[in-house]
């Protein structure tokens, strides 16, 4: 399996995490079905790209060669990417080739970008013009088949990028000249230059998986032109009729109806999200939607996913191992139907009679582990989150109760002193709240509604949400509370 990976010049956003998570689940499923040593997963690193060059050039101090600056930028970004996707519970692919290592490989017989371009020229599918090498699109009758685009549509799309050296508007760049002062480059039969974007994936998949392989994946935005061009290059260079047997494309992650993207600026990085949520919650939230559908990314969805995981881990048995149950396997084997997988997990959870005990509780634990959810990581977050909530609550109550006392309310408030700050402890906070609730109920009973509303507002200002209910037997009003998030 080959999946187009990140262009490494900045933090990845949560949209970029979608293909990483989706194809990680597929990788786990394939290893389970066929055996670990029969699955090879390649996800490339695009470390030659004009956005990288621009970023590196901007920060270049001239104290070292520009290529060293570029390498430092891509190394740092790659490290960040690894930390992020590790935290999302994703396994590392079998190979993560860097494009720059596949431009020119001196070892005899080692496939690289320059060799593929030479083959394409020799076979009459590419031509040299003005220091560039271009793929000759009209030389390939099947071009446009993957994207199901007509020639007219492709010509219209290509008009944006007209260049005088192109024979046909749809022709695309395989190689381009580099300015040795400002851009990275390699010596080639066509002069000092660098590859176009698409050729790297033909070279890396060809070198690591062969001329034809099973599955090719990526985001839906890559279908055209990137994957169409990969197919054209690989099939025309190798003389094959197909590059991959199956193509899988994930839908977009959307924010308010638009694709999350760097250029639109409507993105949130994985790193920022990991400040507030454990990777497991982000992962579950991603898998609730089928991979081909768009996802509407919301804070509410994350809250719900955190609630679901909390519930599952509370009920799941404490065991260590991992396994995929037949019902989940069937769901995933059906075009990676993760919503069905979720339904099966809920069903499993609903069959648990005694928390953490019995076959279903064990199954739930094993399946969650199989799917990359890490109980210890999730529970560490839960603990930290609870502690933070409590300290926020204490701070609010210190403020709220001080104001309350100033208004001369008779309720006794116990305060403990820490770091010179007057703050009630967690248990005392609860007492304060319960005393206030009792005072409010008393005020209501006495029909002093102004006072009871005032106390309610006071509690709301402390961040406490009240839930009123009538006891069905006695008709008495009872009030429960929780910390509003
Ligand atoms: N909003 C999104 N939803 C789902 N997948 C996405 C989204 N944005 C990018 N991807 C996918 O992320 C992977 C990495 O792509 P890449 O590093 O080129 O990001 P990008 O396309 O440059 O991002 P952007 O669109 O923000 O500029 C690709 O498979 C791409 O299809
Ligand atoms: Zn690619």
TrEMBL record:
Residue ranges of the motif 'HIGH' region: 6-16
Entry GO CC: cytosol
Co-factor: note: Binds 1 zinc ion per subunit.
Location in or out of the cell: Cytoplasm
Positions of Zn(2+) binding: 4, 201, 226, 230
Motif ('KMSKS' region): 259-263
EC numbers: 6.1.1.16
Binding site for ATP: 262
Gene Ontology molecular function: ATP binding; cysteine-tRNA ligase activity; zinc ion binding
Pfam family of the protein (one): tRNA-synt_1e
Cofactor(s), names only, from the UniProt record: Zn(2+)
Family in the record: Belongs to the class-I aminoacyl-tRNA synthetase family.
Subunit: Monomer.
Name of the protein: Cysteine--tRNA ligase
Organism in which the protein naturally occurs: Blastochloris viridis (Rhodopseudomonas viridis)
Lineage: Bacteria, Pseudomonadati, Pseudomonadota, Alphaproteobacteria, Hyphomicrobiales
Gene this protein is translated from: cysS
